[in-house]
Write the structure tokens for this entry.
Amino acid sequence: MYMDEPEDREDLFQEIVLQLWKSYGSFRGESQVSTWMYRVAVNTALTFFKKEKKKPDNARMHPEMDVKDDIEESHRETQLDYFYKAVQQLNQVEKALIFLFLEGQSHKEIGSNLGITEVNARVKLNRTKDKLQEIIKKQGYEF
């Protein structure tokens, strides 16, 4: 979900495993191991995504792309940029809620992953979506 190309997904997976290995000693046991692993993975993915975004865009893969495709791609990149900037302003639980939701998890699964009830997950997710939308509006951009 975080990377388009299989090679990039593989690189991200390796980076997540590396970060889990490096940070295991700092796991305090204040949450479930799966929740901690998820948080490390999401934070690593966000960092990795930022690094990939900063890499210079060498020769285009498809030089036959027309202007319309370039505009649509630019619009999607702008949307993603605003979205990720807004997500960075959320707290850890809110970030986890959004990414679990984006991964297609049910409210029950989200609640289980975060150690909260299904109803609490639904309420927190709705509030987080509203907060994210407000942050994006304040940035001067709406989807």
Q: What stands out?
A: The helical segments are 6-23, 33-54, 67-88, 92-102, 107-114, 118-138. The mean pLDDT is 79. The two ends are 20 Å apart (CA to CA). Residues 1-58 form one domain.
